[in-house]
Amino acid sequence: xxxxxxxxxxxxxxxxxxxxxxxxxxxxxxxxxxxxxxxxxxxxxxxxxxxxxxxxxxxxxxxxxxxxxxxxxxxxxxxxxxxxxxxxxxxxxxxxxxxxxxxxxxxxxxxxxxxxxxxxxxxxxxxxxxxxxxxxxxxxxxxxxxxxxxxxxxxxxxxxxxxxxxxxxxxxxxxxxxxxxxxxxxxxxxxxxxxxxxxxxxxxxxxxxxxxxxxxxxxxxxxxxxxxxxxxxxxxxxxxxxxxxxxxxxxxxxxxxxxxxxxxxxxxxxxxxxx
Length: 275
Prior knowledge:
The strands form two sheets. The protein has a nine-stranded mixed β-sheet. Strands 6-5-4-3-2-14 form a six-stranded mixed β-sheet, with no helix packed on it. The protein has five helices and 15 strands. A hairpin with a 2-residue loop joins strand 2 and strand 3 (73-77). The longest helix has 17 residues, at 6-22. It is 20% helix and 30% strand. The chain has 275 residues and is α/β, with parallel strands linked by helices.
């Protein structure tokens, strides 16, 4: 399990407060090499002094709840109560209403043009105005950023048409590969950084082949792997390719609770109910 020094823990605990005060993007905890980040959009956040110590501790030690809603939609709930739905189409994860949704435009099942106005932040994995989408959103205790990827359009790949979204919360680095259409290059891996929890599509063809997804999953070597977008692919087709280095665990419910301290010591593929 990852060991962090007291100095690093202190830095991680207080970055949301410093970021909100300075209106500057926080440094990523997940990227090994510091890089210039695009301008962040900061959510409204106030921390009364009497609560600062308790909240700061939660940013490092708090529990994150992850629920499989359906298709490629996982719902992430942070210690501060921020609810996030991934690859949101409106079909899954809409109740209770999330505060933040991410989208990709590969298919209608991964985005929506008709978003409930009660959703505060809609993060599209593509830029409607052209060029790559750039997100650096701080909403209370979570920092959300993206790594643009290309999208298959017929036989061609459209530049920067989708995104991998990364959620940095409670000391955890959580990545959602979205509707990934191509192998990742070293530059992608560098921009992604460390992922403690990986959400990976295993449909076997609509995104990438199982061999390609296995290659990406093995290289990222996350402590926890959450399959999604399975369709008719037998789970064993994916888990078998991952080999003995990865444990496999089937859970009876659709949700799990995890923290930095409770990550499995051995990389583990966890299959939630409904996957």
